Amino acid sequence: MSSTEAPTTPQIVADLRVVKRGCSELLVESEFVGKLARSHATGKPLRIKLGLDPTAPDIHLGHTVVLNKMRQLQDLGHTVIFLIGDFTSMIGDPSGRNATRPPLTAEQIHGNAKTYYAQASLVLDPSRTEIRYNSEWCDPLGARGMIQLASRYTVARMMEREDFTRRFKSGVPISVHEFLYPLMQGYDSVALKADLELGGTDQKFNLLVGRELQKEYGQEPQCILTMPLLEGTDGVDKMSKSKGNYIGITEAPDSMFGKLMSISDTLMWKYFELLSFRSMDDIALLQRQVKDGMNPRDAKVALAQEIVARFHTQQAARDALATFEARFRDGAMPEDMPEVQLGAGPLGILKVLREAGLVVSGAEAQRNVEQGGVRVDGDRIDDKSLQLSAGTYVVQVGKRKFARVTLTG
């Protein structure tokens, strides 16, 4: 059954609704409907691929946007392949970069990969997940195989990639090995015979290379599903450990809860769509309730409890809420507070207090810290030299002055 002949049944429509929830783009949708129809007709699950390079030892909520989609596809009965890019990590992904990304050493890759799958299994069902390492087929290629692979893609096509074009026009060096990254990621799709590949919007070029290489190797081309990049707690940059705006999935419950409560009321709805397991109907109902007068803080509490319970326990989520509320009991946090963006962190606490308008002078800032009148996210601050890194914080002076302060990376 070809994709152009695919019948659209109520089940396929329902499956497609799940697949497209929160996604940025599904290419090519008609082809994917055909793949779904064939899968339903034959009982053969689709092969869904997600590749992650272990560039850091821990996974944060930004990573779980695509992992959540993989879990949804698992629940629809398909085979998901969690691909650890141990080979491609040694090249370094140039996506979105203005300079060559330093490649990782084999030791760094091995150390990071050890925790990756264990943490991903907090989202995926391990019993229905195929875990692979792309060194399995990339290492055996050798020099001859690499040259043959490179002959299947042109420099002109490679230079269509936005970050390469920008760097070339700006005179910023592009190393030849960086061209190998999208080629090797595309070759992963050939090796795995992927029907669908997932990635962030910044991966679209690489995913499309996979489609082209599959055609070159006589395979039916994969469809691609891109997911939005999740902004971090600062509400500005995508969630990243290097930006300091991340929420790690293995963080302590209190820390995870507090960070989720620090996001803006506007960003909260994107977190609901991309991170919550609630139905879109439930989320729409919450939005209507907030519009009709419900405190948005109550919706945010529900989100924070759901996420903490997922990665810890229901009891941990209840305890985190109790701890959070106790922090603000003495000086109740206002429903609305000024939102202040101060530029790049790290920034000293005394300067933060002045620039956020919570004090009128450095002397007043210092006096309030010395007297125990300054809190950050509910914790009393007694260190005048404290530096706040990139992120979003609720900063309090005394019992009445609050500001939600964002420091960019």
Automatic annotation (TrEMBL):
Query: Coordinates of motif 'HIGH' region in the sequence?
Result: 54-63
Instruction: Give the motif span ('KMSKS' region).
Output: 238-242
PROSITE patterns the record matches: AA_TRNA_LIGASE_I, S4
Query: What is one GO cellular-component annotation here?
Result: cytosol
Record-linked Pfam families: S4 (PF01479), tRNA-synt_1b (PF00579)
Localization annotation = Cytoplasm
**Family annotation (SUPFAM superfamilies):** Alpha-L RNA-binding motif, Nucleotidylyl transferase
- Name the enzyme group at the top EC level: ligase
Cite the PANTHER family for this sequence.
TYROSINE--TRNA LIGASE, TYROSYL-TRNA SYNTHETASE
Tell me, how does this one assemble? Homodimer.
Q: What is this protein's name?
A: Tyrosine--tRNA ligase
